[in-house]
Specification:
The complex is a heterodimer of chains A (140) and B (492).
Chain A: H1 3-25, H2 38-60, H3 72-87, H4 94-108, H5 113-134
Helix pairs in contact in A: 1-2, 3-4, 4-5
Chain B: H1 2-12, H2 15-33, H3 39-46, H4 55-80, H5 91-100, H6 104-137, H7 142-159, H8 164-178, E1 181-182, E2 189-190, H9 204-221, H10 242-264, H11 270-284, H12 296-320, H13 326-337, H14 344-349, H15 351-374, H16 376-382, H17 387-406, H18 409-428, H19 432-455, H20 460-464, H21 467-491
The chains are: A mainly alpha (140), B mainly alpha (492).
């Protein structure tokens, strides 16, 4: 049994069914013409059928070999750091927030303090010059 | 038409337009030459930089990136055996052995020359074939467009690497995402969860930046590079000798022809084209034993084919609105932002713009060859930029670019969510191409199907039995069933 594909099939079957259920709640069309729910329902039915097909083949196929997942902790921390950077959007000013984010990101990946600060400051300055002064976009 | 050709050429023969083309080619060369950065990512991440410039300048930069990244992808393939873009995978088979023999300069020279001839040949095909294809496309009504969109998605799913069912499910996910926002016919809000930001649907640019930019960065963080960045590389001579020119002739023609043809097939991009061209040239060659060990013919055919696929892909994209490969799928979204709607009407109403695109591509092809021949040494040095700098830069460009689209932070969150989705899809072996295509073609598919049903007063058979629609439906069935039949045949 290919557990990876079983999980994917399960997720897509759930997604397909929820599309069908949601689409059924949208207003119906006039006469024989389809309404707002027609397209999502059709996509939902197709996705559910395909997901069932994937489940059937997954149960009868060999175990999948997934590529190894290295540096999971680093990945989670990098993702969390990016999320925190976005959550703080609008606070502390774009330049300061971006420099701090980039320094922490580069440090997380093993870069030395001095290089991290220098690269972060240079890249942030370039972005601010290009977008804020060049393209007149107010970066918050 | 003569006046349109002159108008198209005049529109781009301005110093600022040409400057944007040069910048685009240079950025494309960097994205192509650095392993991990691709042409698709380059177009996706750098599209926001073109929002505030005129259509000609924006097009010049985006086409420069696309036409510059593919040839530059051959540089790391030749020097360090890591293809810079998926399209240059076959270039490493003969390019890297040539480098190991101390002929890195010659390999880079062949890459630059073959890339230019491949691109120019396919651009000539675009100029000659696009107008007849587009005039055929003008016969299409809503029903035919629905059939075409369905066929496009099925092809993308069918030829995607890996499991066909997963490819089709990815296409369905793209279609589902495309239905977020106001219903195109009745303006009823769908899947907006009460958020006004989603009434216009999910913005395409942040999704593609997330899928191909952030998602790729996350994926690379979890992979350990098998090959290092390598030590100093001796280039040697770059220009081929007379006998080597002779050996490049037939493979160059084969690569250009096959590349253009394969590139024009939706979803079959430069990677497939270069592998097919390499294999066909090997079969025809008198020096079969040299292939894979540093063959001039093999390198010429593979480099020519992966670049010729650009013109083929652009032909399908510009004439019918169906992208030929992943970068052209992303390019459609970027062109739409500049008010250019690819499809047959483009060839009827904006002929001078079409010629501007053709001329820009031709200039870019020549420019990247010059960059390849003259800039080999600095590009070799650029290959040693540490990954972590690139990753930080891509994330920052993705965030700022997504925000700049509408000056709203919701687009940045969409980009972040798409990045996580892109990472998850890569891990699960789900191809991203059909997902993007579903997102692009979904609104066209739904609106045209419903328009066709209104015109036929709800008669499905009247829609589905129109000759062109029926042909597309049969082709859709064939493209979906063919890989499944092959799989069962192999298993049985």
């Amino acid at each position: 049994m290919n557990r990876n594909d079983v999980a994917i099939g399960g997720i897509f079957a759930t997604l397909g069914l929820s599309l069908v259920i949601s689409g059924a709640r949208f207003p119906e069309g006039v006469g024989r013409l389809p309404g707002a729910g027609f397209f999502p329902m059709t996509v939902g039915v197709a996705a559910t059928l395909l997901a069932v097909g994937l489940l059937v083949t997954a149960f009868s196929s060999a175990v999948s070999v997934r590529p190894p997942l290295h540096n999971l902790r680093t990945l989670l921390m990098a993702g969390g750091l990016t999320a925190a950077y976005l959550l703080l959007w609008g606070y502390f000013g774009f330049a300061l927030r971006t420099i701090v984010f980039m320094v922490l990101f580069l440090r997380l990946l093993g870069e030395r303090w001095r290089n991290s600060v220098a690269v972060s400051a240079a890249v942030t300055a370039a972005v601010v010059l290009a977008f804020q002064y060049g393209l007149k976009i107010h970066l918050q | 038409m003569g006046a349109d050709i002159i108008a198209g050429l005049t529109a781009i023969l301005q110093w600022d337009v040409l400057l944007f083309l040069v910048i685009g080619v240079a950025l494309g060369a960097v994205f192509g030459a650095l392993p991990g950065l691709t042409a698709t990512m380059g177009v996706a991440v750098l599209t926001p930089l073109t929002f505030w410039v005129s259509t000609e300048k924006g097009m010049a930069m985006l086409l420069g990136i696309y036409c510059g990244a593919i040839p530059a992808g051959g540089i790391p393939a030749i020097l360090i055996n890591i293809p810079g873009t998926p399209a240059s995978i076959a270039s490493s088979w003969d390019g890297y052995p040539l480098s190991r023999q101390g002929k890195a300069g010659l390999a880079l020279g062949i890459n630059a020359i073959s890339s230019m001839t491949g691109q120019l040949a396919s651009i000539f095909f675009l100029a000659v074939a696009a107008f007849p294809i587009a005039s055929f496309g003008l016969r299409f009504g809503p029903a035919e467009y629905f059939g075409l969109a369905l066929f496009g998605i099925s092809l993308m799913a069918g030829v995607s690497t890996g499991n066909v069912l997963k490819g089709m499910l990815a296409g369905m996910l793209g279609l589902a995402l495309s239905s977020v926002g106001l219903d195109p016919m009745t303006a009823y809000p769908r899947f907006t969860f009460g958020m006004p930001d989603f009434l216009d649907g999910i913005a395409f640019v942040p999704v593609m930046i997330g899928l191909f930019g952030l998602g790729e960065v996350f994926s690379q963080m979890t992979e350990r590079r098998a090959a290092g960045k390598g030590g100093p590389i001796a280039l040697g001579r770059i220009w081929p000798r007379k006998d080597e020119w002779k050996r490049m002739g037939v493979p160059g023609v084969m690569g250009s022809g096959l590349g253009t043809f394969v590139g024009a097939i939706p979803a079959a991009g430069g990677d497939i084209a270069s592998v097919i061209a390499w294999e066909q040239t090997r079969k025809m060659s008198r020096r079969k034993e040299e292939f894979g060990k540093g063959s001039v013919e093999g390198l010429t055919a593979s480099c020519g084919a992966c670049n010729a696929a650009i013109g083929g892909a652009m032909t399908t994209m510009l004439t019918l609105g169906i992208p030929g490969d992943a970068p052209s799928a992303v390019l459609i979204g970027a062109l739409l932002i500049h008010g250019i709607q690819p499809g047959p009407l483009l060839f009827r109403d904006h002929q001078s713009l079409v010629f501007s695109i053709i001329f820009l591509m031709a200039f870019a092809a020549v420019l990247i060859a010059v960059v390849g021949l003259l800039g080999a040494r600095p590009l070799v040095r650029a290959l040693r930029v540490p990954d972590r700098y690139l990753w930080a830069g891509i994330i920052l460009m993705g965030v700022v670019g997504s925000f700049a689209l509408n000056n709203t932070v919701i687009d940045v969150w969409v980009m972040f969510a798409a990045g996580i989705l892109g990472f998850a899809c890569r891990r699960a072996g789900i191809p991203l191409g059909p997902l993007v295509l579903g997102l692009i073609l979904g609104p066209m598919m739904e609106a045209n199907l419903r328009r066709a049903l209104i015109l036929s007063r709800g008669e499905w058979m009247e829609v589905l039995t129109r000759p062109i629609v029926a042909s597309f439906l049969l082709a859709t069935l064939a493209s979906l069933l063919w890989p499944l039949l092959k799989r069962f045949k192999r298993a049985g």
